[in-house]
C-alpha cells in the first residue's frame, strides 16, 4: 500500500509544507483537505474519491475549494465528503457561502457512517479524539494492512483512542510541538501533542511504524520536532514530508 502526504503541517503553510492532506491513491481516499489538496490532481489514479474530514478547522478544510480545479483536470465519477454532521454543516454554510465561494462543487456530503468501504475493499472506521471543538481519528483495515490517522489531539497513554489504533501497521499521528518548545500544559490547552508522548503512545499501542505529522509551521525544517527523541522511545519513527510516498 502507498500513502502520499500532500500536506504535513498545521495552521498555515510554510516553505516546506502545506497543511493537512493525505492520499491513498489506490483506494481513492483522502484524509483532510488542507492547502495540500491543490496537489490531488497530480496523484489521483481512479475516478472515485472519498474525502474524510477529521474536523472543520480551516487548515483541514480550505482545500475543499480547490476541488473546482481538481475536477476540471481530473473528472470524477463520484466524489464524497465524509464528516460529522455539524462539521459538514459548518463547512457548507460558511466556507461555501455564496459571498466567499460562489461556485458550486460537485460532491456528495455524507455524515460519517460507522463503516465506509473503499473502492479497493479497505474499511474505514472512526473514533473521537480530544480537541477543542471536537475531532475524530480514522482507522483503515485491509485484509493484510492497516493504518490509523490521528491529528489535532493530545497524546497520552490513557487516551481513550489507544485501543482504536492498536496494532496498526502504520500510525500517522500529529506532533505539533517538540518536547522543549512549550510546557505540557500548553499542548493540552491547545489540543496538540509533543514528541515523547506520541512515541510512548505508539509503543503502548503496539503499532508497526510511527510517522509524525501536523508539525507546527514556524519551524520550516525537515525535522521540526526532534526525531532522535522519538526514536529513543519508539525506534521505527519517521517525520512525514510533503510529496514523499510512504509504503506500508
Describe this structure in words.
There is one protein chain. The chain is α/β, with parallel strands linked by helices and 248 residues long. It has a single domain (2-247), classed as Ribonuclease Z/Hydroxyacylglutathione hydrolase-like (Metallo-beta-lactamase, Chain A, 4-Layer Sandwich). The protein has 7 helices and 14 strands. The chain has helices spanning 58-61, 67-73, 85-95, 162-165, 184-190, 195-204, 227-233, and strands spanning 2-7, 21-24, 29-31, 48-52, 78-83, 108-111, 116-117, 123-129, 135-141, 146-150, 170-174, 209-213, 237-239, 246-247. Strands 6-5-4-3-2-1-14 form a 7-stranded mixed β-sheet. Strands 7-8-9-10-11-12-13 form a 7-stranded mixed β-sheet, with helices on one face. A hairpin with a 4-residue loop joins β9 and β10 (146-150).
Topology, number of strands: 14
CATH class category: Alpha Beta
* Number of separate helices: 7
- Give me the side-by-side strand order of the main sheet: 6-5-4-3-2-1-14
- Basic shape: globular
CATH architectural group: 4-Layer Sandwich
Order of helices and strands: EEEEHHEHEEEEEHEHHEHEE
Q: Tell me roughly what share of residues is in helical segments.
A: 10-25%
Task: Give the CATH topology.
Answer: Metallo-beta-lactamase, Chain A
Average of pLDDT: 97
- Give start-end ranges of low-pLDDT stretches: none
Q: Per DSSP, what share of the residues sits in E-state strands of 2 or more residues?
A: 25-35%
Amino acid at each position: 500500500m502507498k500513502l502520499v502526504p500532500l500536506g504535513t503541517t498545521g495552521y498555515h503553510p510554510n516553505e516546506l509544507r502545506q497543511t493537512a492532506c493525505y492520499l491513498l491513491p489506490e483506494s481513492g481516499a483522502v484524509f483532510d483537505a488542507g492547502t495540500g489538496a491543490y496537489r490531488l490532481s497530480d496523484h489521483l489514479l481512479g475516478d472515485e474519491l472519498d474525502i474524510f474530514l477529521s474536523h472543520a478547522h480551516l487548515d483541514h478544510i480550505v482545500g475543499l475549494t480547490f476541488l473546482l480545479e481538481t475536477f476540471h483536470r481530473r473528472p470524477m465519477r463520484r466524489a464524497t465528503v465524509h464528516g460529522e454532521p455539524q462539521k459538514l454543516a459548518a463547512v457548507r454554510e460558511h466556507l461555501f457561502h455564496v459571498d466567499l465561494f460562489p461556485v458550486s462543487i460537485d460532491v456528495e456530503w455524507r455524515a460519517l457512517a460507522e463503516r465506509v468501504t473503499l473502492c479497493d475493499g479497505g474499511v474505514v472506521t472512526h473514533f473521537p479524539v480530544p480537541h477543542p471543538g471536537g475531532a475524530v481519528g480514522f482507522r483503515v483495515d485491509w485484509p493484510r494492512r492497516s493504518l490509523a490517522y490521528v491529528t489535532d489531539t493530545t497524546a497520552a497513554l490513557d487516551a481513550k483512542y489507544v485501543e482504536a489504533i492498536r496494532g496498526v501497521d502504520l500510525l500517522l499521528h500529529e506532533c505539533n510541538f517538540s518536547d522543549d518548545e512549550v510546557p505540557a500544559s500548553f499542548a493540552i490547552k491547545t489540543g496538540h501533542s509533543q514528541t515523547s508522548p506520541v512515541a510512548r503512545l505508539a509503543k503502548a499501542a503496539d503499532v508497526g511504524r510511527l510517522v509524525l505529522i501536523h508539525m507546527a509551521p514556524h519551524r520550516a525544517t525537515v525535522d521540526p520536532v526532534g526525531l532522535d527523541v522519538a526514536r529513543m522511545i519508539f525506534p521505527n519513527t519517521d517525520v512525514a514530508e510533503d510529496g514523499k510516498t510512504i509504503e506500508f
